Amino acid sequence: MATLISRSPEETLALGRAWGESAMPSWIVGLSGDLGAGKTQLVKGLALGLGVTARVHSPTFAIVCEYADGRLPLAHLDLYRLETAAALQGAGLEDYLLAPRGVVVVEWFERWLDHGLPVDAARLRRVQIETVNANERRISYDDTGA
Fold first, then answer.
1. I want to staple 67 with a disulfide (CB 3.0 to 4.6 A). Which of 28, 52, 117, 118 is the partner?
2. C-beta of residue 129 within 8 angstroms of C-beta of residue 32
């Protein structure tokens, strides 16, 4: 597992951008971290790296935002409001996590795993963002699957 410290929102954005520039089709990025930890900031950077020109925002109420104008399509999912297995399954998100097109980023990814729902683990990068203090975030990630 790789770990780094981001000392600003701009550094988190730059990390996401670098990931977006090297992203391959069918990549799934599962993000975990508290509210305000920087998950959406990382996604904004990833979108920039993919060449997405649309404004990227958290899909907390929409659950899914799709962006098709980049080098690869980007699907940004937010599971914050989906707390039960029934709610997750009822949202119809399985295709995103079993047969992803482009890049799929999932905020609150632990909710999917906690309910034992399937994911294409061979294509998964799990990311944990922890708030160290007001200006620093510890970002740990692993590409070995779920």
1. 52
2. yes
Pairing of strands 64-67, 74-78: antiparallel
Task: Estimate to the nearest angstrom the gap between the alpha carbon of 146 and the chain centroid.
Answer: 14
- Is the domain 2-139 a CATH 3.40.50.300 member? yes
CA distance 109 to 42: 14
What does the pLDDT read at residue 61? 81
pLDDT digits (tens, 9 = 90+) for 110-141: 999 888 887 888 889 999 999 999 999 999 99
> Where do the DSSP E strands lie in the chain?
2-6, 27-33, 64-67, 74-78, 103-107, 124-131, 137-142
Sequence-ordered list of residues with C-beta below 8 angstroms from that of 92, at least 6 positions apart, any chain? none
